Amino acid sequence: MENYSYLHLGEPADPDRYVICKYRVSTDLPMEKAAEAIAAEQSTGTWTGISTLDSSIFERLGARIIDIAGNVVTAEFPVDDFSIEVGSVPQILSVIAGNLFGLGALNGVRLEDVTFPKDITSQFKGPKFGAEGIRKALGRPEKPLVGTIVKPKIGLSPEKTAEYVYEAGSGGLTNSKDDETLVDQPFCPIQDRTVKVAEALDRLEEEGHRMLHAINVSTRGDKIVELAEKVQGWGARQIMVDVITCGFGAVQALAEDPSIKVPIHVHRTMHGAFTKDPHHGVAMLPLTKLVRMCGGDALHIGTLGVGKMSAGAHEDSNLRACLGDDVPYRTVMPVCSGGVYPGIVGSIIERSGFDVQIQAGGGVAGHPDGVRGGAKAMCQAVDAAFEGIPASEYAKDHRELALALEKWGSR
Ligand code: CAP
Ligand code: MG
To answer: Which of 48, 153, 321, 394 is packed most tightly, with the most Cβ within 10 A?
Structure first.
């Protein structure tokens, strides 16, 4: 019974043959030992040498530790470790983000990044519409998109939801969406809500304003495509799915189903459970990459250090993963959300550039002039940033923005 070594330090990774992962490791063991424990557990080994592992299996399928830089370990997994089934995120995750989190040898381990070879990226189709498609549907080629989340997140009737959307659109917003906890509760049945919101959007369009509203179809896996089809039939022009609670397969099923002909807005509720701790869990970046592979058209990426949510908030790598040209898919519209208000829109855009959707729930519905006034203030803040004018300057002849700055200040 041989003990095989998974250490291949200094040997460069072959990006065409391996999935390459970066892990941040906290351990009391020597880092090389900890890295070997990860490689063994996630590929051909276990806690002891085993008689059933021979050198041919090990050489073909063993993970390789190719770099250790401080507490960051780079491991590569042979492409043959992965399922040949078409685009299986569950199997990919069980290799790159599986048992290792529970290993007693590690105090903490965090998957920071992953790069997939062509043999795997080619199994996925990416977004059907993407950032481009959403912009086209809205007739807004350049400016940042500006949206809202209907607030309160639960409680409004279908009529009140539609009224909110109409007011938001009348104030100039390009997007709105259901909140993550709203799907089909008795106070706001999804059919009635979808029909009434569609009527509000039609009314706005007749008045010359195009707007999208994402209806949340998050539900059990075997019903989600059916629900999305129904919602589409009731007039929805965009749908939303909570990717962590529904699973990547749900996004993929919706994106790949030919009967679904509307863009998918991807919310990431619950991600903070494993993205927030800098020493343990999974960073948002691998999740962003997987959402793009699975076909999300828009994805929450945080507010780049200026909003209310702390998890992954400073990471602009997610923005790049949505928009980069290093993968064979359409780009994803990055969505900056969470504690946004007009006074921070300029700072967000400074960090994000114009290819972004900025949205505010409380920062619209909490405006002294109501939803329409809040929508106007958000649009004015975006226009100011787009034209390179400081918000405080722009507010001198834009009343709603002035009121928002007075109420919430700016950063
Ligand atoms: C924003 C939001 C989103 C967060 C989630 C909320 O509302 O609707 O769910 O953006 O965070 O309920 O908080 P506010 P993230 O504008 O009222 O804060 O996008 O980081 O996943
Ligand atoms: Mg929300």
So the answer is: 321
Secondary structure in 3-state letters for the chain: CCCCCCECCCCCCCCCCEEEEEEEEECCCCHHHHHHHHHHHHCCCCCCCCCCCCHHHHHHHCCEEEEEECCEEEEEEEHHHCCCCCCCHHHHHHHHCCHHHHCCCCCEEEEEEEECCHHHHCCCCCCCCHHHHHHHHHCCCCCCEEEEECCCCCCCCHHHHHHHHHHHHHCCCCEEECCCCCCCCCCCCHHHHHHHHHHHHHHHHHCCCCCEEEEECCCCCCCHHHHHHHHHHCCCCEEEEEHHHHCHHHHHHHHHCCCCCCCEEEECCCCHHHHCCCCCEECHHHHHHHHHHHCCCEEECCCCCCCCCCCCCCCCHHHHHHHCCCCCCCCCEEEECCCCCHHHHHHHHHHHCCCCEEEECHHHHCCCCHHHHHHHHHHHHHHHHHHCCCHHHHHHHCHHHHHHHHHHCCC
**pTM of the full structure:** 0.97
Nearest residue (CA) to ligand 1, atom 5: 338
Answer yes or no: is the C-beta of 316 below 6 A from any ligand 1 atom: no
pLDDT band at 15 (very low <50, low <70, confident <90, very high): confident
- Tell me the ligand closest to 176's alpha carbon: 1
